[in-house]
Design brief:
Radius of gyration: 19 Å
CATH class: Alpha Beta
Largest sheet: 7 strands, parallel
Strand content: 15-25%
Distance between the termini: 49 Å
CATH architecture: 3-Layer(aba) Sandwich
Strand order of the largest sheet: 3-2-1-4-5-6-11
Bound molecules: nicotinamide-adenine-dinucleotide, thymidine-5'-diphosphate
Shape: globular
Number of strands: 13
CATH topology: Rossmann fold
Number of helices: 12
Helix content: 40-55%
Structural class: alpha/beta
CATH superfamily: NAD(P)-binding Rossmann-like Domain
Amino acid sequence: MNIFVTGGAGFIGANYIFYMLREHPEYRIVCLDKLTYAGNLSTLEPIIQNPNFRFEKIDICDREAVCGLFEEEKPDIVVNFAAESHVDRSIEDPEVFLRTNILGTQVLMDACRKYGIQRFHQVSTDEVYGDLPLDKPDLFFTEKTPLHASSPYSASKASADMLVQAYHRTYGLPATISRCSNNYGPYQFPEKLIPLMIANALADKPLPVYGDGLNVRDWLYVEDHCRAIDLIIHNGRVGEVYNVGGHNEMSNISIVKLICSELGKPETLIKYVTDRKGHDRRYAIDPDKIHSELGWLPETKFADGIKETVRWYLNNKEWWETIVSGEYKNYYEKMYGNK
Ligand code: NAD
Ligand code: TYD
């Protein structure tokens, strides 16, 4: 089996490549990544010499380069993680989100049609459903919930999902989609809530909590997401959407306080800052379909996963300190300088 993994130098893609090479050592994995600010080749260092692994620096919007690699490698499966993924950045500058997340997905699917494929899997997000109110805790996103995106990021992901479904219906592309809740774990870029708070707390810097801090996310350990995608590409039904989430809803402020406590840092570091524009209130997934059809259930409890994640950031300071000291620093000033 030859699997193309796009965006594999990013957070979830890299964890997925490690997972696949471990679980299916006989598979060939080819990673296509543009290495944007969020892509870090050093993450893939441990497997770069693996004879079953190949890395190519490719923009998924570059039709010629993508087709060239398809021609050469003839992949059986494509798993598309490549995306601009940060909501705050999409609010500042939406254009690249539309380009990569929508047009890039189209280029990949066109190549799949041209060269033939067993499966195209689109890694999507629960954010395509918009948000849920805080006062109706029994409401969850199911696969039938209408798309109702709030941010340029989620609108671009929802657009890509619709395009994937259109390619399935119109051209018979054997496609599946997974819509997962917020992931956390090793190698997450320190602009997202959990690694940002860990990095700032370790440096005794303020911990910027948006608005009232009561927004709720449904957190899933990254490896549980990787296992879900593995199950879907092998056993999921073509043309179907699978929601992935572990009923682990937490408010932002409770996560930040937990990180302070894990690191022995004072809660006085917490600073409430101006809210994100259009900030989604609550995400919550109903994972019944993937559980009943594919037997998937999350394996990592949040209490264990967050401890493991904090330990990973403590033991791998070099990985994230290089990032924090680079381009990200300018971005950080721009986003938080006046808040
Ligand atoms: P990330 O930002 O950490 O990584 C994205 C990767 O894609 C980077 O390596 C980047 O270099 C690469 N990339 C960006 N533009 C590209 C292009 N034009 N061509 C090739 N490569 C390009 O993102 P992540 O958190 O790992 O998310 C991966 C996927 O999972 C995304 O599609 C995201 O929408 C989805 N998702 C993320 C979460 C989450 O909590 N992080 C939850 C659900 C779904
Ligand atoms: P984030 O990690 O950006 O993921 P998403 O917006 O895709 O869910 O943010 C998670 C939550 O944390 C979200 O409600 C916004 C909030 N947040 C803060 O309060 N402060 C921050 O500095 C960041 C990055 C996020």
